[in-house]
Amino acid sequence: MGDDLASRVKGAVIEPLVAEGAVLEEVVIAGSRKKPVIRIVVDADGGLTLDQAAEINRACSRALDEGDVMGDQSYVVEVTSPGVSRPLTAERHWRRNIGRLVRVQPQNNGEVITGRITAVDRSTVTLEMAGKHRDVRYEDVKKAVVQVELKRGEG
Questions:
Q1: How far is CA 58 from the centre of its chain?
Q2: Is residue 151 part of a domain?
Q3: Which pLDDT tens digit goes with each residue over 49-62?
Q4: pTM value?
Q5: Contact 6, 28 (CB under 8 A)
Q6: How far apart are CA 104 and CA 112, in angstroms?
Q7: Which domain holds residue 142?
């Protein structure tokens, strides 16, 4: 049910409805066969706002109700943005996280790099590590994940 239905939903109604400036990351079908949950993961430069998520949710629900992809089947639509633990796999992911700390595992299983994203272009990301800048080509990255930074309160 999941992958085939997700492809049909994505192709038939979701992609045309993603708000300007937002990018459809994936469509996941979860829940039961009786009442599936259609989880639409959308990203945007600067982050997805609650208003954008609500607008996309309404438009997708309306299109699914009016179309024949779901037939008479009941369903739930959820619109969400990618979590912070999602790997950086596209230039837009890197661009969206400028200023954030990332952990990068190189393709060659070399030393893991942790640095702050300072610049992004079509083929490389620039990381600041201990005051020095290092350019890393996307093709040399096996996996990269934003690091959660907690600020300690004064007390």
A1: 20
A2: no
A3: 888 889 889 888 88
A4: 0.69
A5: yes
A6: 6
A7: 91-146
